[in-house]
């Protein structure tokens, strides 16, 4: 069984904060149409963009809440470790799901780009 020490906890915390900042940057970046696709099918593109932006915002909110409740626990303001771990796991699952969606979109893009014309 692995022992948990302060350096491991701080490394995990820093990893979570880095993931959170990456998601905040992704959510804040303006969505531009790729290759003029938005001009061809504007309604569908804006719906997809809005859905993707909403999903990223939701994941970002979960990450922010997890970071704040973790910091609250570290300061001793709360003693409910179960709530802290639950919030962190929810944020982690949301982030992993977002990562898998990104991977699938990237794979689909690569497949389309490698198709002969």
UniProtKB/TrEMBL annotation:
Claim: Plastid is one of the keywords in the record: no
Domain of life: Bacteria
Alphabetized GO MF terms: cytoskeletal motor activity; structural molecule activity
GO biological process, alphabetically ordered: bacterial-type flagellum-dependent cell motility
Pfam families, A to Z: FliE
Localization per Swiss-Prot or TrEMBL: Bacterial flagellum basal body
GO cellular component: bacterial-type flagellum basal body
Main location (coarse class): other
InterPro entries in alphabetical order: FliE (IPR001624)
Keywords per UniProt: Bacterial flagellum, Cell projection, Cilium, Flagellum
Presence of keyword Hydrolase: no
Cited HAMAP family: FliE (MF_00724)
Family per similarity comment: Belongs to the FliE family.
UniProt name for this protein: Flagellar hook-basal body complex protein FliE
Gene that this polypeptide is encoded by: fliE
